[in-house]
Write the structure tokens for this entry.
Amino acid sequence: MARTRYVRKLKELRQNVIDMGVLTVRSVEDVLTALEMSDTALAECVIANDDEINNFDRKIEAQCMTLLALEQPMAKDLRMIATSLKMITDLERIGDFVVDIAEEVVTMAKPIRIPVSATKFNELVADVKLMVADSIETYATGNVQQARSFEARDDRIDFLFKNIVESMVNALAQGKCSTETVADVASLLFIIRYLERIADHAVNIGNRVCYMEEGDRRYLK
Amino acid sequence: MNNSIEISVKNLNLWFGKFQALKNVSIDIQKNQVTALIGPSGCGKSTFIKTLDRMNDLVDNVKTTGEVLYQGTNILDSDTDVVELRKQIGMVFQKPNPFPKSIFDNVAYGPRVHGVRKKQNLNEVVERSLKAAALWEEVKDRLNESALRLSGGQQQRLCIARLLAVEPEVLLMDEPASALDPIATSKIEDLIYELKKDYTIIIVTHNMQQAARVATNTAFFYLGELVEYASTIDLFERPRDKRTEDYVTGKFG
């Protein structure tokens, strides 16, 4: 195998993206646990850990720029670097939404109550969590079939999001919320919005993996 | 690739004695586009380009089969007027090879051979050709100086001007910038980009970045085979063949 040093650098880049992804997945899981368990300490911990995700973002961007500037990557190597460069922005944005959710968790009254169907809310949470984890897995494994399923899974998440928002707005309109809980309902509205956006970034990652694996730009919408 | 075709090569095979240097190569070269030929040393890309103006005729013991269709005729046919063919399909070589004559006489050489005698006509051809080769501004005040006093990059552009003076249709370039520094190289590349408006250009290059910069389409040769031929962006961003992928990513062997 020629270009041993270059191949090693590509492997390091790929591993760093996976590590950043794993960290982001853990962050998503932790903040949703904090929400479920009304755990302020865990939420604060998640906020503090965002620096680590941001550090990965800067480090990986530098790695990508070095490879582009010095190694003239082509074909799949080029697509992997381009995918990584874009994907870390998606991961970094997911990290920011996690912080937004954590900040809501910190300010909400404890224990946190969900004023709508817990089933739908839990389904939304589970779906988003799984999709973020799966998006990192598709990057690591190159599973294009799995990546292509994200659009349909996101449609389901969008449906749940709209449904839950509607229920919350109805609850507010019908005066089912006490004066004390109105602020928490507003926080929950923000939280589900953040979750819906997190899922959008997971879809982006899936599309980029399709490009990385097959070179088809149609997925880069 | 739906532009009109300048040269259509069909099932081209070429042997040097018992060694088969080209294996069943079929390729359509688009008119007024730059086509780059890439591949490792010995892959057949230079042999291929030399076939297009019958330069391999100069090598002993060469045998070719197949067709190279240009303007409706197979140029491999024995009755092809090779002098006329080389007027229409000209070659620029790796190392600039100006004649040991003045700048003017280098460019006027071809037209004189083809019968242009009037000084006024020669002046016009020389100026037009040097302008087209982006050299006029640098040499217009010293046309009678020896061409050998020019820099390497200028000499290469002079050789291109010398080709343009006989009004060819196709320019073959065999690693035209490999002996030049980056600044002279970029001038040649800019020139290639400009020339494709009026000429069909086929360039052999070892420099993949150069192919990526100047060519519309790129062909990858390996062991005498045309492995892959695609738009340059497709070949470098999403090659179909594993051998192309390995070559363009530098992981060959």
The longest helix of chain A spans residues 179-214. The CA atoms of residues 87 and 205 of chain A lie 6 Å apart. The interface with chain B takes residues 1-3, 6-7, 72-79, 214-216 of chain A (CB under 8 Å). The mean pLDDT of chain A is 94.
